[in-house]
Design a protein that fits this description.
Blueprint (H helix, E strand, L loop, with lengths): L1 H24 L6 E7 L11 E8 L5 E8 L2 E6 L3 E6 L6 E11 L4 E10 L6 E12 L6 E7 L2 E6 L6 E6 L5 E6 L6 E7 L2 E6 L4 E6 L5 E6 L8 E3 L4 E4 L4 E5 L6 E6 L10 E7 L2 E6 L4 E5 L6 E6 L16 E6 L6 E5 L4 E9 L2
Parallel strand pairs: 8-24
Antiparallel strand pairs: 1-2, 2-5, 3-4, 3-6, 6-7, 8-27, 9-10, 10-11, 11-12, 13-14, 14-15, 15-16, 17-18, 18-19, 19-20, 21-22, 22-23, 23-24, 25-26, 26-27
Length: about 350
């Protein structure tokens, strides 16, 4: 009896399996899509015509339409299984995503992605520097932000339980005012905008706002990037770095992200953008752990110049521990440039000099 029941069970299982497989074979298959992306150069360069080739393969059914999206914006559609679309004189630097959606007449669709990268078409100019003057700098300051306003130097320092903002006499280094952060915060970049000091923190996604006159805490805000590094502003928005090659523009009233730009030179993305300064329509940025300052076109993200400050620290003959170059301040009135670093004993006024 048990054997007969077992045999019936096996027969029933085989029947169900056969029915399931038969049913599966009748199920509509998703379209398969092959995407090719090319330009006249081996690597895509700013201003190139970009060719996107699409080939749709169907195992069953008929193709209704294929749509192409670039960074979520539809740029083309077609009913042919194979077609080509062009992005004429593409002028958006950085990494971009192509999404292709192929839809069959029965509604079944296949969605496929491919990325491409656009480099700058400019070879950055190379600069060195001339030392104009040096001034005292507190060598206990773990410098994260530097700003000149009305002739005074404002500096943000980092490290938990040590972070603060200092207003100092530029020429003597004497502290005139200061405000300390709570111990749990690691201070980062600052900028002065609309008579207020805006300050980032490192990993807490929190920024603070202080009244310029008395450094009283006025407000706080949350920002989108995971980490806060450097900060500056243009005529309308705050601009922050987060250690990547991306600069984020923030509305100073709502604290919402306005836009992002990707920073590239003619070879690759420029990562580790740190302390920032905006002057005469350009953004200057320290490249973390190096002695490089890059000059960035904020309209495109192109690096148009690089300044190598190798050797500047030897001019101060430090006898104590120092860390990396970090801190750029350009006086809005005189256009003079000042730089320093973490635990540096000096603040340097420099003039950038083109090589060659």
């Amino acid at each position: 009896m048990n054997f007969r029941l077992f045999a019936l069970f096996i027969a029933f299982a085989l029947f169900i399996s056969s029915f399931s497989c038969s049913n599966k074979s009748n199920r509509s298959r998703k379209p398969a899509v092959q995407i090719t992306i090319e330009s006249v150069h081996k690597k895509i360069i700013y201003g190139d015509d970009i060719k996107i080739g699409i080939a749709v393969k169907l195992r069953d059914g008929e193709l209704q339409e294929t749509k192409i999206f670039v960074d979520s914006v539809q740029v083309a559609s077609a009913r042919d299984a194979e077609f080509t679309s062009y992005l004429k004189k593409f002028k958006n630097i950085g990494k971009h995503t192509v999404k292709v959606v192929a839809v069959k007449t029965d509604g079944v669709e296949g969605v496929y992605y491919k990325t491409f990268e656009v480099l700058s078409d400019i070879i950055p100019e190379q600069y060195g520097y001339e030392l104009v003057q040096s001034y005292p700098h507190n060598n206990t300051f773990f410098t994260e932000g530097l700003e000149i306003h009305n002739g005074f130097l404002y500096e943000s320092t980092g490290e938990n339980a040590k972070s603060a903002i200092y207003k100092t006499n530029l020429k003597t280094g004497k502290t005139l005012q200061s405000v300390k952060l709570a111990d749990r915060y690691f201070g980062e970049g600052i900028t002065i905008f609309n008579n207020r000091i805006f300050q980032l923190t490192y990993k807490t996604k929190t920024g603070f706002i202080y009244e310029l006159e008395n450094m009283a805490l006025a407000d706080s805000f949350r920002f989108e990037p995971t980490e806060g590094w450097g900060m500056t502003h243009d005529e309308q928005n705050l601009i922050m770095s987060d250690g990547t090659n991306v600069l984020t523009y923030i509305n100073p009233e709502t604290y919402k992200t306005v836009k992002k730009i990707q920073v590239y030179d003619d070879k690759e993305p420029v990562y580790y953008l740190n302390e920032l300064e905006y002057s005469e329509g350009f953004i200057y940025a320290n490249v973390y752990s190096t002695n490089l300052i890059v000059k960035i076109d904020p309209l495109t993200g192109k690096v148009i110049a690089k300044a190598n400050l190798d050797g500047i620290l030897t001019m101060s003959n430090p006898d104590k521990q120092v860390d990396v170059l970090n801190g750029i301040a350009i006086d809005p009135a005189t256009k003079r440039m000042y730089v320093t670093g973490k635990f540096y004993p000096k603040l340097f006024e420099i003039k950038l000099v083109k090589k060659g």
